[in-house]
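ok new one. same drill as before - structure tokens go in, u give me an amino acid for every spot. 186 of them this time. try not to just spam alanines like last time pls lmao
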């Protein structure tokens, strides 16, 4: 299974968590896993996305992972720009848009607040999964299987040891051929 990780972090040089997770994915690739890591903000700092190149990357992947920090309960702006530009009608969706059908789509997200805040009874009143539903709807539209996300909460207070454990878990998750699909009402 070919896994492509698209890392969207606008300030990777200042990132602790996403930088470490990206390195874990790159280490998995270096160890022989069929994982490719692309750092989109480095590729497209001007937001001018090479749509045809991105389509080729997606066509070659069996599993597509969007990795990003959660900002204001959502994604960094380049993720949305990438979706708008690359997931074109007639290619990714619509009556002739079947290029991604049958592939897997997964998210690896890192909200800053502790996990307890992301609960219906918590201070935010929404789970991380609730906040990611628009991505699941996009997955439904483009014909991909939407997998349960890899979530790293509490990034603002995550210890070094916990980050290392999370990085190891991420590498294992990326190379697991049997990830669960996310249900509609989980």
């Amino acid at each position: 299974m070919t896994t492509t990780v698209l890392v969207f972090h606008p300030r990777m040089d200042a990132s602790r968590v996403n930088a470490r997770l990206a390195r874990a994915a790159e280490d998995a690739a270096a160890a022989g896993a069929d994982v490719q890591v692309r750092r989109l903000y480095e590729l497209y700092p001007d937001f001018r996305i090479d749509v045809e190149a991105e389509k080729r990357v997606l066509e070659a992947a069996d599993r597509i992972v969007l990795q990003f920090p959660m900002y204001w309960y959502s994604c960094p702006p380049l993720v949305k720009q990438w979706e708008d530009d690359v997931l074109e009608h007639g290619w990714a969706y619509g009556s002739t848009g079947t290029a991604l059908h049958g592939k897997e789509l997964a998210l690896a997200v890192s909200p800053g607040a502790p996990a307890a805040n992301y609960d219906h009874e918590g201070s935010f009143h929404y789970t991380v999964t609730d906040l990611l539903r628009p991505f699941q709807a996009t997955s439904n539209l483009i014909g991909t299987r939407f997998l349960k996300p890899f979530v790293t909460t509490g990034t603002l207070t995550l210890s070094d040891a916990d980050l290392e454990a999370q990085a190891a878990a991420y590498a294992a998750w990326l190379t697991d051929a049997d990830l669960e699909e996310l249900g509609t009402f989980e």
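The mean pLDDT is 96. and btw Residues 17 and 31 are 21 Å apart (CA to CA).
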